[in-house]
Amino acid sequence: MKNTCWCKELLIPNATIFMQEYADDSRKTKYSLVIIRNNM
Q: For residue 21, what pLDDT is reported?
């Protein structure tokens, strides 16, 4: 299930993120954040 919030508290230094590109002009952004991997 995708989360529509910002989730900026999960964006920590050295985390690996995976994004999905969308070619839809009706979206606010071109990408969606799919996975955040904490490299601790």
A: 94
Contact 16, 39 (CB under 8 A): yes
Instruction: Give domain status of residue 29, yes or no.
Output: yes
pLDDT digits (tens, 9 = 90+) for 6-15: 677 777 888 8
**Alpha carbon 36 to chain centroid distance?**
7
Domain count of the fold of the chain: 1
Helix (H, G, I), strand (E, B) or coil at 19: strand
Can you give the residue range of the structural domain that contains 14? 8-37
Residues 6+ apart with CB under 8 A from 10: 36
How is residue 17 written in tokens?
A: 């993120």
Answer whether residue 3 is part of any domain.
no
